[in-house]
Write a structure and sequence with these properties.
This protein has about 130 residues and is α+β, with helices and mostly antiparallel strands. The chain has a 5-stranded antiparallel β-sheet with strand order 4-3-2-1-5.
């Protein structure tokens, strides 16, 4: 005969290391997702909630819709009154506030970062372009 018979090998008695080897990629993928996606998002949510909780009268804000305004009155834990132009006041939900533009003396909370191209020509690209 040209075809030989295939015989099954005897199975190993210890299956514990096989389960560990099979689960290791899943554990590593979860760890990568945690450190690259979940943890930074939780930190961002925590700082946003802190910013929302510390709103005061006179703070300059930007809503999620892109409307700039000044907080004129904190109504309750869910709503604030915002003046978007002189004499025009609107009641908005605190959750819709995306950015706090005013800077407090307690630190740089809510300070807007400088744009990358507003650095005065510094950095590698600025040096390559000849800006000083």
């Amino acid at each position: 005969m040209f075809i030989s018979t295939a015989w099954a090998q005897a199975g190993g008695a210890g299956g514990g290391s096989d389960i560990f080897t099979a689960m290791l990629p899943l554990v590593l993928i979860f760890a990568v997702f945690y450190f690259l996606l979940i943890r930074p998002q939780q930190k961002k949510m925590k700082t946003h909630q802190q910013m929302i909780g510390n709103l005061r009268r006179g703070d300059k804000i930007v809503t999620a819709g892109g409307v700039y305004g000044t907080v004129t009155k904190v109504l309750n834990e869910a709503d604030v009154m915002v003046e978007i132009t002189e004499g025009v006041r609107v009641k908005i939900a605190r959750g819709t506030i995306s950015t706090l533009l005013t800077q407090r003396e307690g630190g740089a909370q809510g300070a807007t970062p400088a744009a990358a191209n507003d650095s005065g020509g510094g950095g590698l690209l600025g040096k390559l372009m000849g800006k000083k």
